[in-house]
Amino acid sequence: MVFLAPLTTFYRIYKKKCTEGFQSLPYVVALFSATLWLFYAFIKKNELLLVIINSIGCIIESFYIAIYLAYAQNKARIYTAKLILFLNMGVFSVIVLTILLLIEQSHRARVLGWICVGFAVSVFVAPLSIMKLVIKTRSVEFMPFYLSFFLTISAIAWFFYGLLVKDLYVMVSSTTILRHTYEFKLCRLSVRSVKNARHIKNENDM
């Protein structure tokens, strides 16, 4: 459901044939993270749920990025292409080669697990650019409620999954998701409170 949360955003981009103020960074980073977790699942083995969820995530995020590239202006399109080449091809290739060639097989899952946790944090730091846009425009349209809602539900579900299968890395990454989701909600509340305060002030002036 987290992967499907931005669907309304990309339907809007498709209808208007324009990306407006939306940025591609969160979706490129999300694709990179899903790919990384997929690699972790193959290294650790017997992680069917991680394989299924992140395979679906890779497909959906690729679909979003394709729509973005189709309707973005040249500057945004070039920036997104460079980002994909750097993260999803460059950095990912370095990680794969490092894990397979330099790390002993018995330590691969542990090392890759901490790498996944680190980049899981980046997935939810990436939307900070959206938070800046929200604060600047005083509008929460760039930070959909459903995205925050499903992030919270997903984090709780993955935390208990990690607890059930005793996977420390899944549990730790879930706690970072919860923290950043809380920050997003605070941002939404602060913007709404500013708008409400202005509305009340305008009514008093009248």
From TrEMBL:
GO terms for molecular function: sugar transmembrane transporter activity. The keyword Repeat applies. Signal peptide: none annotated. It comes from the Eukaryota. It is found in: Cell membrane; Golgi apparatus membrane. The chain crosses the membrane at residues 25-43, 49-71, 83-103, 109-130, 142-161. It is a multi-pass membrane protein. This is Sugar transporter SWEET1. It comes from Apostasia shenzhenica.
